[in-house]
Write a structure and sequence with these properties.
Number of strands: 7
Radius of gyration: 17 Å
CATH topology: Phosphatidylethanolamine-binding Protein
Strand order of the largest sheet: 2-1-3-6
Distance between the termini: 35 Å
Number of helices: 4
CATH superfamily: PEBP-like
Number of domains: 1
Largest sheet: 4 strands, antiparallel
Strand content: 25-35%
Shape: globular
Length: 174
């Protein structure tokens, strides 16, 4: 369920009400999926959701933790990111597969599918269509041989938060 308000999200009262509604249910689901899929500590040492991030492929909305067919995800995704604090900020969007098998080493590694930095975002401007990326920025997810399901993680970081973590997701990536 997408948060839809008739008010101006640049006004504090509407941001407060949207944040409260998100924290009542949707945020709890996201935190549960982060724990179930072992995103913390397998992918990130710490992660605290502060924005409502929605993913869709054409008209197909994807629920947190939902498995989708690769035929659905072969088109560029659309992100809707609702932030609840004031002002415009720059964000970094990372899409990674944290379970890429390395058969000869009997291990797993991560693969970065998409990385976009310095994307402007504000409480009133929430749509981030990944199709607007240049061909050089976008690498479509691929299905690894003999793997039926491979989780792909979408993360949206505030630019200054990303720098402060000192953590690099792309270390050792292809």
């Amino acid at each position: 369920m997408l948060i839809v308000l008739q008010g101006d999200m640049n006004k504090p009262i509407y941001r407060y009400l949207a944040d409260r509604k998100w924290r009542e249910y949707q945020r709890k689901i996201i935190v549960q999926r982060i724990e179930q899929l072992a995103i913390v500590p397998d992918v990130l040492p710490f992660f605290e959701p502060t924005a409502d991030v929605r993913l869709a492929f054409r008209t197909r909305n994807v629920q947190p933790g939902e498995f989708i067919d690769s035929r659905v995800s072969e088109v560029p995704a659309r992100l809707k990111v609702q932030v609840f604090d004031k002002g415009e900020r720059l964000v970094t969007i990372v899409v990674i597969d944290s379970d890429v098998p390395v058969v000869d080493k009997d291990a797993f590694t991560s693969r970065c599918h998409y990385l976009a930095a310095n994307i402007p975002l504000s409480p009133a401007e929430t749509s981030l269509p990944l199709s607007k990326a240049t061909q050089e920025q976008l690498v479509q997810p691929f299905r690894t041989e003999r793997i039926a399901i491979s989780p792909v993680l979408d993360i949206c970081f505030r630019a200054e938060t990303w720098k402060d973590t000192g953590y690099c997701l792309l270390e050792g990536a292809d």
